[in-house]
């Protein structure tokens, strides 16, 4: 902003300040005269009757914005759990879509004939001597060799290899069909010795005396991983009658197809070599020329004039593998129900749903659409196999889901498509929802105490003075306080989540009555070599737990409000070298180990986490039998959901370094955000991933809050993402 513009704004602000002050004084004067009279009269009437005044409000409200999705993505957002290549979501045409991303592709390597530019000549490791002639001609892979018993290279061999790179990573696909077709040809002189020969040489000077298996050509095709740890023969052909008999001229094997392994074996072999790389493998095509010295004479001449592999065709098809427990949800976070005395009367939820083509139970019988309120599964679901291609109505109405409507926190709704089985899907499905109405009806009570006239006057005067001062201070802050100070406040708020994750060193959940841990996870070495300190920590937690339990028993003697949550008591311990947050929820005790004192935000998250965990495992804790099976996965999932632990995990980038300038313009990256991206690419040249802390450690001369804010922006822009 220019200086001149700022001074004009100041002038306008001062005028507005004067108007606000005058208006506040006049309003205070009018209310100070009329309001006490009315309140005093009403108060006196209630006093004569021995009654307290009480306001009772019945409220029924639609809790969602944009229920018909007329404004795409307004208030709604989607989440993906599991493999994000399996599912996606979009909002358009007045509806929200869930997409299950099935597809099917095929790959063909066709070399008819093979081209020299695509293949590399290699030795056969078992028969390293090559034929006298080998090349890639316009007919294909070609070789020839003349054998005599004096040079005695009896098994010359040669093969050609080609590295294949597929267009997709096959870890998300399953090969479901495959074929290999290889055409070969051979031309041999009549001196080739086979069963049925009467002469061992073209000049008929020597006859065939003895031999083992005779002379032959073995053609073969191999598939392997790039490092050849896995090598499989997938096709072969070995000549049997080439060279037999004594016709005039040459003996010829006409164009012949190699014999392929069975299709099930072929699909297994291709899948096996792709487990090593998921995208690349090697195809090898070769030949072995086998000769034997099988006459008494010292001059046994055997010659294969031409041995040719004319064409190669490897084809296989692969379908998308959809992973079990992958889920995609549309979500909205609504307002909270605030107040001391609240009673939820009824809740109704309704929406329309359909699918673009029928979902067969053969695909996945257990896949479903389910309802979550405040991230809790309400137990209502619809099997995808029951969906129709036209809209059907879903409705819940009454008091059945009242327990999931929590007070004094923001109420969220999620409609989730959950994949219940692993299966192959050859084409995509689109599931649509629309007209989502979430109606909550509740009663709110407000009680007023009887007050006397003098007290009303005092309260009114003080209130209006405070209102006037607050108005003046608020306007002054808006007009006069530097913009930099406001930016700093915003920066502190924006970076708190990162600081909380960094502060968190360990999480422990205990069965409170027995003191046994049911879950523990450390995120640092803070306890390493500190056994005495850790023992002291456990003792301190036990003492605090006893105090909390004793306090609960004393409070239990008093009459409790049915709506007040009494277990939200977070205890913070200062153990000198680290801090602990302790919270008891019935039989569950949750402990956070922190590097430094906790923030208010972290305490609130601990409360929500402990309550959510107790809802899921309360039955197990009440009937505790020291069985920890299946608890780890439940607790770990909630830890990631509430505490953003993925900030501690390795990250990767979603773009190539060459695309950085394009995204700088497209997303209007700041100079500092652009600088951070360059640092990340420098780190990735040294290793395959990076952590957010790597950036803070490298940029020690920069303001930490600005670094964290830049990282938050890059995460929001989806330029960087956690690997898990």
Provide structural commentary:
- There is one protein chain.
- With 724 residues, the chain is an alpha+beta fold.
- It folds into five domains: 3-52 and 453-481; 60-104 and 323-447, Galactose-binding domain-like (Jelly Rolls, Sandwich), CATH 2.60.120.260; 113-318, no CATH class; 495-641, Dynein light chain 2a, cytoplasmic (Beta-Lactamase, 2-Layer Sandwich), CATH 3.30.450.30; 651-722.
- Strands 5, 7, 8, 10, 13, 16 and 23 form a seven-stranded antiparallel β-sheet that branches. Strands 1, 3, 4, 18, 21 and 24 form a six-stranded antiparallel β-sheet that branches. It has a six-stranded antiparallel β-sheet with strand order 6-9-15-11-12-14.
- Helix 6 (600-622) runs antiparallel to helix 7 (631-643) and helix 9 (671-684) crosses helix 11 (704-716).
- The protein is elongated, with a radius of gyration of 39 Å.
- Residues 1-10 and 557-567 have low confidence and may be disordered.
* Oligomer category: single chain
The count of domains is 5
- What is the tally of beta strands? 31
**Helix coverage percent:** 25-40%
Query: Which runs of at least 5 residues are low in confidence (pLDDT < 50)?
Result: 1-10, 557-567
> Number of helix segments?
11
> How far is it from the N-terminal to the C-terminal residue, by CA?
44 Å
Tell me the Rg in angstroms: 39 Å
> Judging from the principal axes of the Cα atoms, what is the shape?
elongated
> Average pLDDT value?
81
Strand content: 35-45%
Content-based structural category: alpha+beta
Describe the sheet with the most strands. Answer: 7 strands, antiparallel
